[in-house]
């Protein structure tokens, strides 16, 4: 019998066990490392996204505060000139951020504005050194707060707390031609201001020319840049180009939106003149009229003292190529062709006013003051006077009626300020009817009595010496009658004047009022710094 000596194999199990343990340990450590790396990646991604949306929040706070109506408005602090050695930038600072943080380029300060030099061309902003893309700025214009920039505190939620949102500052400057990688207009100087006309960016011919002097009119473009830094060190920066869509004037005293042959008709010795409520000056020019259709002028003494502009070409079946029919020695001023004017329709009042009238007679058979509010079919009897009391121009008194009929000898008095009368006209063939000398606007300012009607029915107006008003009814048929004077502006689908009506176009209405449009985002980008 053979006996095998296995003493040399002693300890092999221990060796395998140790090798297996080492392998399992390596696998475990690898899995732990992978898990830790993924956790770190997720954490970094979360911090980066938090910083991104914090920067977006900063932009939106400032964008909203740029409106004058915001109770925390920055409107009075916005830059009004192109940046230079004098103040040209506004910084909105989060709690704990100081003006010194903006300009300190030390390695420990992550709040410095190391993007500004890329937003301006070489030597165009206080002698600051210009760097190309992907190279960090190393300096800013000389001086601190009160020299080339001013500051304002953030009012975002929790802005005053110990833990505000992670955005640190938002910078607002005007945009110049070379404030980005590409010139807006290569044919103009890089330092010229950029404007927005509601469709595209335009560059002024020189910085002595304001944006609103361009044709079409335009508004300044602002660069709004925001930096956010999280407690963990994630840093993101975003930038928007924003501007308000401009409000343009409308240079016609009478304008018919209809496209037929009888859109605008002046006869019976009716005349139009220019006039300005801010100066009280009347002129034999500037009484402009216009139409999307044909204009007809007839009768001895009928005259347009201004331009008569029609968009009739190719529309309707009218007698003359320029859309103007004239007879009886009428004078229609300087004719011209214009594009079709698409004007907005006033919306129906919301909520709608009542559609009921008064039982057994007129609503008002005695003189009284009517407070702002909603009314049904209002009737004012002969000899009666109702007074509508206005408010300031930026907060007018609002009256909503289904219809209004003012009898001969009755009067509607506008006093104290601005009144807006919104007419619903539900189930009413004649939703607005003023007879006799029934309109007395004691302010003498047409824009203080604005009548809005979006329906398609009839408006009849017989004014008087105090008839100062603006009629905005682009779908309605408007008729002016009587030997009267009317001051202001009227827009309807058709407009007819008879009986020696004198219409004085208030040229101050062609000056745009306050622009309350929200700031439009022209573009947005994330910056590398």
Structure description:
This protein has 529 residues and is mainly beta. It has two domains: 75-248 and 516-527, no CATH class; 254-510, no CATH class. It is 11% helix and 33% strand. It has two helices and 32 strands. Strands 2-1-3-7-8-32 form a six-stranded mixed β-sheet, covered by helices on one side. A six-stranded parallel beta barrel has the order 22-24-27-29-28-25. Strands 19-21-23-26 form a four-stranded parallel β-sheet, with no helix packed on it. The protein is elongated. The mean pLDDT is 85.
Quick overview:
This protein has 529 residues and is mainly beta.
Largest sheet: 6 strands, mixed
Structural Rg? 35 Å
Find the count of extended strands (DSSP E, 2+ residues): 32
Number of domains: 2
Percent of residues in beta strands: 25-35%
């Amino acid at each position: 019998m053979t006996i095998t000596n296995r003493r040399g194999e002693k300890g092999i199990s221990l060796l395998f066990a140790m090798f297996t343990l080492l392998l399992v340990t390596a696998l475990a450590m690898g899995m732990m490392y992978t898990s830790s790396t993924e956790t770190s990646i997720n954490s970094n991604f979360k911090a980066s996204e938090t910083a991104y949306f914090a920067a977006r929040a900063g932009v939106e706070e400032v964008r909203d505060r740029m409106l004058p109506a915001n109770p925390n408005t920055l409107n009075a602090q916005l830059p009004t000139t192109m940046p230079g050695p004098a103040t040209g930038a506004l910084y909105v600072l989060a709690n704990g951020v100081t003006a010194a943080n903006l300009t300190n380029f030390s390695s420990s300060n992550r709040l410095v504005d190391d993007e500004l030099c890329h937003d301006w061309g070489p030597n165009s902003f206080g002698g600051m050194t210009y760097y190309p893309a992907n190279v960090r700025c190393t300096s800013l214009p000389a001086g601190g707060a009160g020299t080339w920039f001013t500051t304002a505190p953030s009012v975002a939620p929790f802005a005053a707390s110990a833990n505000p949102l992670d955005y640190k500052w938002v910078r607002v400057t005007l945009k110049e031609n070379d404030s980005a990688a590409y010139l807006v207009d290569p044919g103009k100087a890089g330092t010229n201001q950029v404007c927005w006309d509601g469709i595209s960016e335009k560059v002024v011919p020189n910085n002595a020319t304001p944006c609103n002097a361009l044709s079409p009119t335009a508004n300044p473009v602002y660069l709004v840049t925001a930096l956010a830094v999280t407690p963990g060190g994630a840093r993101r920066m975003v930038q928007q180009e924003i501007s308000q869509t401009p409000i343009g004037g409308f240079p016609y005293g009478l304008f018919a939106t209809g496209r037929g042959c009888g859109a605008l008709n002046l006869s019976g010795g009716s005349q139009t003149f220019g006039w300005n409520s801010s100066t009280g000056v009347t002129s034999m020019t500037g009484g402009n009229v216009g139409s999307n259709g044909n204009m007809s002028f007839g009768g001895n003494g009928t005259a347009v003292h201004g331009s008569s502009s029609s968009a009739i070409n190719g529309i309707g079946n009218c007698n003359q190529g320029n859309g103007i029919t004239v007879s009886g020695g009428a004078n229609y001023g300087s004719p011209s062709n214009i594009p079709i004017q698409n004007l907005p329709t006033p919306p129906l009042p919301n909520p709608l006013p009542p559609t009921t009238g008064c039982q057994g007679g007129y609503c008002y058979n005695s003189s009284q003051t009517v407070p702002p509010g909603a009314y049904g079919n209002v009737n004012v009897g002969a000899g009666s006077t109702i007074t509508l009391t206005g408010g300031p121009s930026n907060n007018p008194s609002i009256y909503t009626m289904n219809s209004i009929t003012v009898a001969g000898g009755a009067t509607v008095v506008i006093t104290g300020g601005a009144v807006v009368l919104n007419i619903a006209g539900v189930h009413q063939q004649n939703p607005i009817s003023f007879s006799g000398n029934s309109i007395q606007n004691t302010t003498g300012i047409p824009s203080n009595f604005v009548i809005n009607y979006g329906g398609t029915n009839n408006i009849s107006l017989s004014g008087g010496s105090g008839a100062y008003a603006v009629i905005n009814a682009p779908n309605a048929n408007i008729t002016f009658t009587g030997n009267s004077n009317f001051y202001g502006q009227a827009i309807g689908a058709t407009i007819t004047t008879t009986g020696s009506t004198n219409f004085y176009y208030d040229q101050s209405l062609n000056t745009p009022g306050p622009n309350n449009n929200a700031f439009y985002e022209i573009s947005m980008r994330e910056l590398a710094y």
